[in-house]
Give the backbone structure.
Amino acid sequence: MKKTLCTLLFFVLLYPLLAEDGYRLWLRYEKIDNNSLLQTYRAAINSIQVTGNSAVIASARQELLTGLQGLLGKSVTQSPSPGTGNILAGTWQQNALLRTLIPADHMKATGKEGFVIRTVRYQQKRVIVIAANEDAGVLYGVFNFLRLLQTQQPISNLSITSAPTIQLRLLNHWDNLDRTVERGYAGFSIWDWHRLPGYTDPRYTDYARANASIGINGTVLTNVNANARILSPEYLEKVAALAHIFRRYGIKVYLTARFSAPVEAGGLKTADPLDPTVQAWWKEKATEIYRYVPDFGGFLVKANSEGQPGPQNYHRTHADGANMLADAVAPHGGIVMWRAFVYSNEKPDDRFKQAYNEFKPLDGQFRKNVVVQVKNGPIDFQPREPFHPLFGAMPATPLMMEFQITQEYLGFATNLVYLAPLFKECLDSDTYAKGKGSTVAKVIDGSLEDHPISGIAGVANIGNDINWCGHPFAAANWYAFGRLAWNPQLPSDEIANEWIRQTFSNNATFVQSTSRFMMASRENTVRYMTPLGLHHIMGNSHHYGPAPWTNKAQRADWDPIYYHRADSTGIGFDRTAAGSNALAQYSPDLRRQYENLKDCPDNYLLWFHRVPWTYRLSSGKTVWEALCTEYQAGVSAVRDMQKTWNGLKPYIDAARFEEVQQLMAVQEKEAVWWRNACLLYFQTYSRMPFPAGVEQPDQTLEYYKSLRFPYAPGI
Ligand code: BDP
């Protein structure tokens, strides 16, 4: 009897605390744990009415019911007619009551996807109104409202207007058809191609819910290193099954197009974009795709980059290639996202400069439904990069941002690195393209040049791990990407705060401490990986851990030595006029700041300058001393984070507490590894001792050089 009672108590009281596996992400809808607030919410919400008949409205209604039921711990009814419940949601045009409660001009600012949330008086009662111009806006409004409750905000007098500034807010999955994920660290692909279309995993719906909750409205299902097979009828049927689920959450499906598909899948002799048979093949293929997926978004293309086929194989330009595909999807309303991530093996020029040199001359030559997708920095998703010089340099072409959410260069899924500050650093950068204030955010939201199309993409960190992203904190980066895509002006700490409250707890101590170390985490990671503007010094191919000594990669610009250029006379890449002159690709105002050694901020120093080891920074430290102290500070910061986390045990469930605790121990080891390996290696050139306070490595440089990782994930 006693035993049964204990078991029962365990399941009722403790199991929910232990069983947090992260699957519910930030949509946990746990009952409000603040009793007086719970009573206030309960009094304010009894019944809801979500008007409309579409599938998207049905999703909104379901989410509101599920969410409220969980948060309020009571069932909420649906009221039969508008105005009888105390939450009223729907599209303004189709609901007469909404039209009387919300003036028409209040709806203008909400555009196609935005919404208003207002507390209004109706028949002597307070009613919360969620209104939008279109169904998707209602869904986004519902998620916003639920977020208010989840983060325990007051709801007695709501007056919110929200609309996205960027139109295409997309995830890019680098998922292969065999379910491996290029640069994925959270298991295998969530797309179970083999069992599609017959079996549709409930996970697809939860994926769509999570995305819609942060405003993501599109997903590219397949790897940029593309496989033409995805365009076959067999696979299009599978794609259609996914599209059917995602459509209910306002999410469009896109695919990557392998440029050589006409040859590989169509049996043609060429994929030359100016060849009429090739053009006809793509037109037919597009028509076929739209038969399966009537609202198909379009193609994402990696061409003539890292060995992928492209128009240059036929001596055509990127514009020729992009336009040919754009013409194929244009009649159906589709777009082409053409990537600017190109650099050539044959050209000895600084890799930094190559995408700009290739694409800038093409400005104005792309069709109206082409967007050029540019990575945030000129090299490749490094822990810190200056913004890509193409932003602001192609005024006649809409440019889309490509961020990397998966932590290929930021510690995979074992390092806690909150990426919102990295994203913001780039979005807030001033290109000076049209004078001061021409930020990257304004380039990509289309406002700087008044482009009718705008977009932002994030390379997803999602896999089939139970918690989706591997590290419990990695989901914060998916969340932050979506929130910033909706509103690039949101502060990073506000996003962290929201995410922590929804994911873990609203406890003030927990929220504050966690937010503090999240906010510091990116800068600290830069410290223990690539301080002072070092970049691309990770292990070759798998990109796991430090390997600044690597000098034998297949191509020179995959070698770390190409980037740090360390020898006995100094360190750094001279990109001033005396060097590769990459700085000339920025506007003169910016160039001046970076060009002058004294004015160049320390965190970009080795990006743009080559300096002797004894060069003194404004702090008075030599470059060698600063390098050593930065690496050490990065390690110390991880240890501080561990201490803080250990003190937070009482506030959250044991399962996630322990998982994070263990991963932080891994992160500490890896930070030490980075510091030791890099400092020992650079010391062979500086020939100077470590300054006081920098720990002596416990292994030799030879040891670090001997490490091999043939099975590192994500290759
Ligand atoms: C690099 C990745 C590689 C991708 C490439 C890309 O290492 O796996 O294919 O970016 O963006 O950073 O195309």
Observations:
- The two ends are 54 Å apart (CA to CA).
